[in-house]
Amino acid sequence: MGFGWVIPEVKDYERLTFRGNIKNFPSSTRAELMAIFTALIVMPKRSKVIIYTDSACAIQNIKIITKQINTRKIWTENKNPVILQMINDIVQERRLKIICHKVKAHSGDKYNEIADSLAKIPGFIEGITNNIFEGTTISLNYNNITDRSFIPIWKFTPIETPVKDAIKEINRLKLMLNFKYQERFKYIMTNTKCREIDWDLTFKTKHPSKITSDITNKEDSNKRSFALKLLCEELPTLSKRYIHKPNLYSSSSCILCEKLVEEDNMHVFTCKRKGQIDPIKNLTNKFKEILIEKIKKEEPGIDIKIIKKVVSEVDILNYTYEKDYTLSKNYSDLSFFDVIKGFIPNILVTKVKKICRNKKAKANKIIIDVLEEFQKILKQIWKERCDKVIEWEIKNGITNKDKRTRQIRNDKRTKIQIDKTSNIKEGNLHISKMMEKINFQRKQKQKEEDLEFFTNEIFLNTFTYKGNNLYKIKIFSDGDMAISSINFIFF
C-alpha cells in the first residue's frame, strides 16, 4: 500500500513531496501513521508541526502518544505499536510539538489531489505518472527501539497487534480448524456450500446468551444444548443408542416407521409416522410463516405482499418435491435440511436485509428470532418422538438403569463387534483401519498448513487485501490556506 505527504511553499520550493510503500497489515490508519512518521523525520528540532489529515484514527493515535507518559499502553492496547513507538521516540528526541486537525477527504483542493496521487501505488492506477518512487518500500528498523525488553516477532516481522489479541486470534483459528475438519462436517465444508453459509450468524443462533455469563439459566442451557446437538448430529437417536448399547437395542431402525429406516438426526424430522405427507413440506411452510411474521413486526410499514414476494425468492425455502437427506449431502448447494440443522444461508440474510433497507443489525435480529422460534417447533417434534420411544422401551423391558450402566470393555464387546461386521473379511478390516489412519494423518497435515496460512494472514496480512484504493493516504498542507498538511514553525 502507498502513502504520501506534501509541504507547500517551503523557502525556494513551490512544495516538497514524498511517497513510499509499506507492506503487511494493510489498513488506512497504518498508512496514515507511516506518512506522519516519515514527515516527522525531516522536521527541524524544536519545531511546531501542524498536521492536517482526513484520518480520525490517526489523530486519535497521535493524541495517545502526546498525552501518554508511560509508553506501555502503546504495546498492550493499540495496533501498529512499532510505528507509534517510533513516532514517540522522534517526538521526544527532536522535541517536536504536534498539533493535528481533521479535514474533509476529497474536498477538491489542489494539495489534496497531489497527496491523493502520491498515495496511489504507481503502475496500478491508470493516469498516474508518478513513477520516480515506484518500488520504494520502506521497512522499519525496530532494533533501534531501546526502551523495550522484547518485541514480539513472527517470521522476522514485528507483530503489529497487541499480544493478547494475537493469542486470542490464534486460539480462535485452532477452534475453527478443529470444527472444520470433523468428519461429521465434511459434506458441508465443500467450497460451494461453505461459502453459502453466514458463519457468524450461524454461531450466534447457537448461543442465546454469552457462554461466559456468571448466571446459570436452565432454559438457556437447554436451548443451547439442543441447538448444538442438532448442528453436530449428536441427538441421542436410535442409531446412536445402537452403537453405544448394542446389547439393549437390536436395531437402529425407527420404531415409528412402517419401513426399516435408520433413525438418525434428520430422520426424526422427516419421519412420516406411518402417514403419506412429507413433514419437510409442513416445516418449510412454518419457517416461512415465522419469517414473514417477524419481518412484519420489525417493519410494519412494508406491505405484506412485498414481504411474501421477497421471501419466495429464497429458493431454499420453496418446497418442490420429497428429497432424500443422505443424497442431499452430495448436492452442490444448501438444502432445507441444512436450515433444520441450524445453518444460516447467505441468501436468506441478503433478502431480509433488502426488506429492512440494508439495516444489518435489524436483519440479524429477525433471523435470530426466527431460528429461535423454529427450533421450538423442532424441539416439540423431538419431545413427541422421545415420548413414543420411552413407551417402546418400557414395553421391551429397557430401563433407565440399563441405559446408564456402563458396558464392560472385554472380549464380549469384541465379539459383539465381530458379529456386527461378520460379513467383512479380516483383511478388508485391516485395510480399512490403514486407510483411516492415512486419512487422519492427511487431515492433520492439512490442518497444520491451514493454521500457518491463516496465522500469516493475521500477523502479515499478505493475501487478504488486494485493492490499493482502500489504503490511500493524504497529508496535505498550505501554510496560509485553510486546508493544509504539515506546517512547521521554528522556535
Automatic annotation (TrEMBL):
<dbReference type="InterPro" id="IPR002156">
    <property type="entry name" value="RNaseH_domain"/>
</dbReference>
<dbReference type="Pfam" id="PF00075">
    <property type="entry name" value="RNase_H"/>
</dbReference>
<feature type="domain" description="RNase H type-1">
    <location>
        <begin position="1"/>
        <end position="124"/>
    </location>
</feature>
<dbReference type="InterPro" id="IPR036397">
    <property type="entry name" value="RNaseH_sf"/>
</dbReference>
<dbReference type="GO" id="GO:0003676">
    <property type="term" value="F:nucleic acid binding"/>
</dbReference>
<dbReference type="InterPro" id="IPR012337">
    <property type="entry name" value="RNaseH-like_sf"/>
</dbReference>
<protein>
    <recommendedName>
        <fullName>RNase H type-1 domain-containing protein</fullName>
    </recommendedName>
</protein>
<dbReference type="GO" id="GO:0004523">
    <property type="term" value="F:RNA-DNA hybrid ribonuclease activity"/>
</dbReference>
